[in-house]
Amino acid sequence: MNEMNLRGRGLVKTYGTVHALAGVDIDLFQGERVAIMGPSGSGKSTLLHVLSGILRPDQGAVQLGSTTISELSDAKRSKLRRTAFGFVFQDGQLVPELTARENVAFPLLLSGVTRGQALKTAEMWLGRLGVESQARKRPGEMSGGQAQRVAIARALVHDPAVLFADEPTGALDQATGHEVMQVLTTTAKMNGTTLVVITHDAKVASWCDRMIEIRDGLIHYDGRVQHEGQNLGERHGLGEGQDQQ
Ligand SMILES: Nc1ncnc2c1ncn2[C@@H]1O[C@H](COP(=O)(O)OP(=O)(O)OP(=O)(O)O)[C@@H](O)[C@H]1O
Ligand SMILES: [Mg+2]
């Protein structure tokens, strides 16, 4: 088993009377690709925000390696998010005034890499995501699928330990969304990056190694994804979720 790199214990997040997270324990392992599924309002985005240090839990702790993220100051958590994590959201994340390669180079420029080196690395990542031809275009001149590939390149350019994606293909048509998700899951695997991706699409989950289903702020099912022609026989079902799949 790979090394554990992100751990949540007893995570609780409450909004008024809503238990967005009602006590979640979770371990994510190095290089693992995890799909988070579950109904609308079940707490998926809240879990992603708490694990990535965007939100502090009301109770419980999040650890990245030996660092307890949930205890860090806002400034330290924000620095950690920039260096250790990458994010891809549904849309609207690229800076419209910048070209694709400038958008991808941006996180490197922030961390002090020279402009020439940052643009070179950005172009290499655009190539890996299959959009090198878009390097000098601005987001408004690209298709939705191309823009999301650029956003993925930007999220990976600083080699994060964990890539968090919240419905990254939610605004794309199904065929384009599947293409982008295949590129995302394959690139994460090649790069050894831990991937946490929220999706409503069972097909997307099938390109991951593990599927976690959230219901009412709790983990309802957690198991290996059964790939066609494989019998991994290593499921860790919880409650009635055991009979699913
Ligand atoms: N900032 C907030 N203020 C108040 N309630 C919130 C806030 N954020 C989330 N909630 C509530 O917490 C619950 C979980 O929300 P969350 O966004 O995590 O759901 P989700 O599983 O991501 O849903 P979706 O699939 O629709 O994105 C919901 O009932 C939601 O209304
Ligand atoms: Mg959500």
TrEMBL record:
<protein>
    <submittedName>
        <fullName>Macrolide ABC transporter ATP-binding protein</fullName>
    </submittedName>
</protein>
<dbReference type="GO" id="GO:0016887">
    <property type="term" value="F:ATP hydrolysis activity"/>
</dbReference>
<dbReference type="InterPro" id="IPR017871">
    <property type="entry name" value="ABC_transporter-like_CS"/>
</dbReference>
<dbReference type="InterPro" id="IPR017911">
    <property type="entry name" value="MacB-like_ATP-bd"/>
</dbReference>
<keyword id="KW-0067">ATP-binding</keyword>
<dbReference type="GO" id="GO:0005524">
    <property type="term" value="F:ATP binding"/>
</dbReference>
<dbReference type="GO" id="GO:0098796">
    <property type="term" value="C:membrane protein complex"/>
</dbReference>
<dbReference type="InterPro" id="IPR015854">
    <property type="entry name" value="ABC_transpr_LolD-like"/>
</dbReference>
<dbReference type="InterPro" id="IPR003593">
    <property type="entry name" value="AAA+_ATPase"/>
</dbReference>
<keyword id="KW-0813">Transport</keyword>
<dbReference type="Pfam" id="PF00005">
    <property type="entry name" value="ABC_tran"/>
</dbReference>
<dbReference type="InterPro" id="IPR003439">
    <property type="entry name" value="ABC_transporter-like_ATP-bd"/>
</dbReference>
<dbReference type="GO" id="GO:0022857">
    <property type="term" value="F:transmembrane transporter activity"/>
</dbReference>
<keyword id="KW-0547">Nucleotide-binding</keyword>
<feature type="domain" description="ABC transporter">
    <location>
        <begin position="6"/>
        <end position="241"/>
    </location>
</feature>
<dbReference type="InterPro" id="IPR027417">
    <property type="entry name" value="P-loop_NTPase"/>
</dbReference>
<dbReference type="GO" id="GO:0005886">
    <property type="term" value="C:plasma membrane"/>
</dbReference>
